[in-house]
Amino acid sequence: MESEVEINKKNKPLVGIIMGSDSDLKVMNQASEFLDKNHVPYEMQIVSAHRTPELMFEYAKSTKKRGLRVIIAGAGGSAHLPGMIASLTTLPVIGVPIESHNLKGIDSLLSIVQMPTGIPVACVAINGSINAAILACQILALSSKNISTYVEEYRKNLHHSVIKKRERMNKK
Ligand code: RP5
Fold first, then answer.
1. pLDDT at residue 10 in the model
2. C-alpha 51 to ligand 1 mean position (Å)
3. In this structure, which residue's CA is closest to atom 6 in ligand 1?
4. Average confidence (pLDDT) per 10 residues, the chain, 172 residues
5. What angle do CA 144, 5, 147 make, to 5 degrees?
6. Res 137: pLDDT
7. How many angstroms does the Cα of residue 27 sit away from the middle of ligand 1?
8. Ligand 1, from 23, 47, 107: best to mutate by most atoms within 8 Å of Cβ?
9. Has this prediction a pTM greater than 0.85?
């Protein structure tokens, strides 16, 4: 495995963020913003399981070779993208069910979460792309001291923000 120093020097993307359509961008941008804030290199593109199946196949097959370590895949409706990518690579795949218009994302959630045994997809909440980015960081933190520090810091800040809320409420 490449050392952390080598990875940082090249600044190659470690996370692949993909989504079925540009209509998913508003939600998926929250994941990229989290990674930006924590200096985690990523790439982001549209890949549709149903509308561009060949592209999806090529993308999935190229991920490991290009040095990606985790995939975050957002999709709505009959959301097959995360599961299909997971079937084509052994990199960890985190699925983000995007809220759909008619069924409020329940269709997306069930499509992503109900994977058959043998091909896991880690599924976050409907529109839960920030948690997908955090989970990606936690996976990368296993082999990166810098990212591990960001993850620990994030937890500490969460703790402090709740303590502050308690103090504000107690004052009232
Ligand atoms: C899915 O279909 C996409 O992930 C998107 O959430 C949904 C609707 O796509 P558009 O019709 O907005 O392009 O493939």
1. 64
2. 10
3. 76
4. 47 96 98 97 98 98 98 98 98 98 98 98 98 98 96 97 96 88
5. 25
6. 98
7. 12
8. 23
9. yes
The single-letter code of the amino acid at 39 is H
The atom number, within ligand 1, closest to the CA of 23 reads: 12
Structure tokens at 109: 């959630």
Ligand 1 centroid to Cα of residue 15, in Å, is 22
Cross-strand partners of 98: 76
